[in-house]
Structure formats: C-alpha cells, structure tokens
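Key result, reporting period 2: structure in, sequence out.
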C-alpha cells in the first residue's frame, strides 16, 4: 500500500485536497498500534501522520495540555507526572492486544477510539476530557474547534464528536485536554465473591460517598500480595470484586476501613499502591485476556443487567469493569456469537464491539453495534458534512461508509 508522510498540518491539507479531487481514499495512521481495531480500511493509500508529535503547550496551573496528534501517550504521561498530574480517564495502551509493542499508543489514536480505563466510573470517557482540537476536513480545510474555555456556545461539540469516530471524519492534528491532579496514594479492597454477588457489591460501592475510581470483577484465582491493612497476607481463591479508592494516607485508610465495615461478611484483602496500579493497568488494557488465543469482544450493558448478560453470553474467558457495565469476553468471532451478543444488547440495552479478531472476521461481521435506521441516517449525514468525498478511513466502522 502506498504511503505518504506529511510533516505539517499544511502538508496534510494539501494531500487531502488532492485526494478529494481524485477520489483517492486513504487510511490514517501514526504508530499503528490499533490498526487491527475496527473493520479493515478499504483504501489504497496510507497517510502517516507520525511526524506531528510533541507537546505544544502545558499549563499545569490551569490543568490544560495541548499536544500534536501523534504525540506518544507515554511522553504526555511523563510530563504530567513531573507535576503530579495525570489524564483523568486512565488512557489504556491497547497495542499489545494486537501484537504491537507497549508504549506505542498516541494521543489522537487513543481519542479516536475513545479509549478509557476503569476510572470512567468517576471521570467519564476520554471524550469528556477533550476541550479543543485542530483537524483537516474532507475539503482539505484546517479547522480549529473548541479550546481552553469554560463553555462552548456553538451548540455542536466537534472535539467530542471526533472521539470514537476512528478517523472517519477528519485528520486530527492537535488536541487540547483537561488534566487532573494525581492522587497521593491508591489502594483497592478485594472482596471474595461469585459473579452475581460481586456485581451486586460493585453496584453498592458505586452508590457510596467514597468516590471509587475503579469497580471491577475478576473471576479467577486471586493471590494476596503483602501489605494488607492488618499485615496478615490472605489468599482469596475464586472471584473477587475490586473497589479502588484514592487519596492522601489518612483519608484513604478511612475509606478502606469504611468499605470493610460495609461488607462485613465478605473475605477481604487490601491491595497496596503498587499491586493496585499493576492490576488495574491490566484491567484497563485488556491484559487479563491478552494471552488468550480467542477473539475478544467488549459488551457494554446497564450494570444492573451485567450478570444476566454474562450468563447469556457464556464466554470462555472474561472479566468485568465499570461496576459490571463493561464485560471483556473471550469468545470466537463467528456469526452465531455475533447474533448471540446482538440479541443480548437488543434485549438488555447497550452495545457489543468485536475488539480483536482476524481480518476476515472483522470484514464479514459487524465490528460495532449495528445502528437503527434513523441513527444510521444521522451517521451518514455527519459523515457527508465532514467528508463529502469519503476519503477518510472508508469502511473502518461500517461497510460502505
């Protein structure tokens, strides 16, 4: 596949104008860690934007950062950590799920997929942290949308629209995000429970005035690390509901004690800072399924329906996040499994996404939840408004779009 590598936003705009004039559709890449997420792109050219890298402006006092699209997330996270700050949506590095090296995720790639981790239960999705962007539309026009302001009065939030669009609406060149102070300490309470009990515990924790930043469930053997509250290591075999809390030392200990008192009958251990960070990094990145040979699906349902959805899905391997609202499922990428999961979302609400599978499966199955006719027409109208000639990542999300 032919590749062009523009160095500037102006170069990209010129290339897009030529592509629009000739009808030459292309795939947008930077480090390419998520090229296998979504349908195979139906194009003959690659537009490599990896040269657009670097932090443009960072204002720690204002909690705002602006960076070029292909800036590695690792570079951003290091810069923020030096000022004891972070991105509040815990951006996951999904590259290893698709066979790429860890550390290759970029800012635009992360936001184009609206990728976020366990902190979504407190901080919202990736799109909720984007306040401005620059991009090139399908007519080759460089456009600035949003910015570091309190209120957007245009009535149409373009930066958020770009998140989750998988590069089908424009070529992102620069993004501005809110950042947040990093917690002094993190810890997690692990409560032994079967799946049904564990989901109930997570929903209860979601309603407690403790601001939990992670509510996950893992079904496998869970060994206790050293460093529990009473310094007596325990081994919990079987499933565990994980409740992560953050704060300075004394308030954090109070939260953990309060949680233990709220679930007095459950066998529990406390994970220290390092153990909590490592485990939730695996939860965020899909690492608990990374070693599986199976295809991987993500099933989003109302948390109250998580156990019913899990029973109906009957996965080979799985774990849960977002208080049960997100189920990571190891299941084959077949028409029958696709139909099974779409039936679940049709009955319970939500959506199913085929995250990892062969190119053949991603071409023949619906990778993203099929849209209702009215919604599909709206999607086509938005695509037409931003990319009239259909040059950006054609087919990435839906066939013939």
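The corresponding designed sequence is given below.
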């Amino acid at each position: 596949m032919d590749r062009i590598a523009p160095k500037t936003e102006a170069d990209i705009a010129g290339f897009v104008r030529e592509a629009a004039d000739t009808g030459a559709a292309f795939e947008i890449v930077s480090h390419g860690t998520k090229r296998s997420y979504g349908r195979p792109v139906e194009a003959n050219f690659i537009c490599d934007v990896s040269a657009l890298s670097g932090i443009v402006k960072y204002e720690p006092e204002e909690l705002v950062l602006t960076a070029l699209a292909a800036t590695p997330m690792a570079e951003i996270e290091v810069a923020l950590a030096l000022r004891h700050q972070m991105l509040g949506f815990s951006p996951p590095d999904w590259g290893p799920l698709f066979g790429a090296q860890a550390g290759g995720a970029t800012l635009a790639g992360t936001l184009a997929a609206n990728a976020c981790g366990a902190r979504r239960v407190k901080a919202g999705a990736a799109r909720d942290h984007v306040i401005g962007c620059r991009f090139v539309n399908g007519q080759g026009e460089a456009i600035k949308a949003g910015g570091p302001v309190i209120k957007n009065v245009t009535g149409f939030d373009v930066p958020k629209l770009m998140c989750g669009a998988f590069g089908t609406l424009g070529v992102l060149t620069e993004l501005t995000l809110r950042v947040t102070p990093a917690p002094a300490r993190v810890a997690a309470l692990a409560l032994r429970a079967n799946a049904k009990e564990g989901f109930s515990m997570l929903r209860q924790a979601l309603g407690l005035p403790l601001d939990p930043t992670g509510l996950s469930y893992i079904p496998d053997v869970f060994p206790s690390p050293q460093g529990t509250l009473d310094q007596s290591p325990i081994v919990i075999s079987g499933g565990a509901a994980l409740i992560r809390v953050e704060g300075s030392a004394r308030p954090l200990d109070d939260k953990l004690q309060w949680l233990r008192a709220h679930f007095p009958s459950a066998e529990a251990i406390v994970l220290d800072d390092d153990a909590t960070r490592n485990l939730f990094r695996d939860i965020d990145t899909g690492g608990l399924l990374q070693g599986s040979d199976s295809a991987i699906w993500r099933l989003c349902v109302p948390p109250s329906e998580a156990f019913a959805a899990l029973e109906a899905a009957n996965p080979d391997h799985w774990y849960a996040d977002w208080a049960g609202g997100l189920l990571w499922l190891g299941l084959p990428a077949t028409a029958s499994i696709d139909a099974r999961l779409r039936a679940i979302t049709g009955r319970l609400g939500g959506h199913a996404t085929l995250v990892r599978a062969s190119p053949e499966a991603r071409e023949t199955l619906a990778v993203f939840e099929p849209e209702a006719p009215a919604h599909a027409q709206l999607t086509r109208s938005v695509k037409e408004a931003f990319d009239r000639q259909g040059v950006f990542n054609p087919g990435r999300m839906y066939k013939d779009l």
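The first strand starts at residue 2 and ends at 4. Residues 149-154, 222-235 have pLDDT under 50 and may be disordered. This case is discussed further under Risks and Mitigation.
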